[in-house]
Design goal:
Palmitoyltrfase_DHHC; mainly alpha; acyltransferase; PFA4/ZDH16/20/ERF2-like; Palmitoyltransferase; transmembrane
């Protein structure tokens, strides 16, 4: 067995390494690991906190500065429910992205016993990652922040304090989608609020004083414009990568595919699971909260990294 910095072509030909069941998440609830995936990275934690703070700030301005003082009850109710509902979906998607194992290869599995169990043929070559001492499957890359090899790693995102990989890419796509939607919604509401307040000369359009309301709205517009631009571009990039079955790392390295590509709808079904349905846009799908809470009460929940 060789140890180098690049994946060897012969990896894809070995059935034990190419079988997705060997490295995917547990197939049943009873096989779930007794650990919570969490990356203890200072920069990532700060970025995650900033993300939550900005979303909650936007929710505060939309709800208490613009909608509650509105004279139109149905306008305030419909937009308030819609914005808060989308904000909950966005924050849930963020949590699922951050706390879901992105597809980490078992650490330290490159042992002599495991190598013997692979029953390698003469001349067959597999790759061992020298950093985490694991056998790296096809399309896996080592993340220096997570300190693990990640299957189908797209990139490490500090805003979600985690890698985006095979098992959590769906939640990352949903996060960027919902953030871009609520950013656009906030911009539209802010524009309408400015128009209404100027028309009423800022006398009855808000419970806040005119200077405070203007400052809050200006910061909201800047935040929403920045978030909308960033997340919309990222959402488009992710959808393009999924439809072409090519991760961002593979695109930047200009790697020639040695795997069978699953393009367009087949790639979307692989990431989001099954046929198109509302489950595709539901970040709560597959969440086993009852088991997680029972595991926490028993003291079995631990940090994975």
């Amino acid at each position: 067995m060789q140890s180098s910095g690049h994946r060897l072509r012969d990896v894809e030909h070995h059935p034990l390494l190419n079988n997705e069941e060997d490295f995917d998440g547990p197939s049943s609830e009873s096989e779930l690991p007794d650990q919570i995936w969490f990356i203890r990275d200072g920069c990532g934690l700060v970025c995650a906190f900033i993300t939550w703070f900005l979303v909650l700030y936007a929710d505060f301005v939309v709800t208490f500065v613009m909608l509650l003082p509105s004279k139109n009850f149905w306008f305030a109710l419909i937009n308030g429910v819609a914005f808060n509902f989308l904000a909950v979906l966005a924050l849930t998607s963020h949590l699922r992205t951050m706390l879901t194992d992105p597809g980490a290869v078992p650490k330290g599995n490159a042992t002599k016993e495991y190598m013997d169990s692979l029953q390698l043929k003469p001349g067959e070559v597999i790759y061992k990652c020298p950093k985490c001492c694991s056998i790296k499957p096809e399309r896996a890359h080592h993340c220096s922040i997570c300190k693990r090899c990640i299957r189908k790693m797209d990139h490490h995102c500090p805003w979600v304090n985690n890698c985006v990989g095979e098992s959590n890419q769906k939640f990352f796509v949903l996060f960027t989608m919902y953030i871009s939607i609520i950013s656009a919604h906030a911009l539209i509401l802010a524009g309408f609020q400015f128009f209404t307040c100027v028309k009423d000369q800022w006398t009855e359009c808000s419970d806040f004083s005119p200077p405070a309301a203007v400052i809050l709205l200006i910061f909201l517009c800047l935040e929403a414009l920045l978030f909308l631009t960033f997340t919309a571009v990222m959402f488009g990039t992710q959808i393009h990568s999924i439809c072409n079955d090519e991760t961002e790392i593979e695109r930047l390295k200009n790697e020639k595919p040695t795997w069978e590509r699953r393009v367009r709808w087949e790639g979307m079904r692989m990431v989001f699971g099954g046929q198109p349905s509302l489950l595709w846009i539901n970040p709560f799908a597959g969440l086993r909260l009852r088991r997680l809470l029972s595991r926490t009460r028993k003291g079995g929940a631990e940090f994975s990294v």
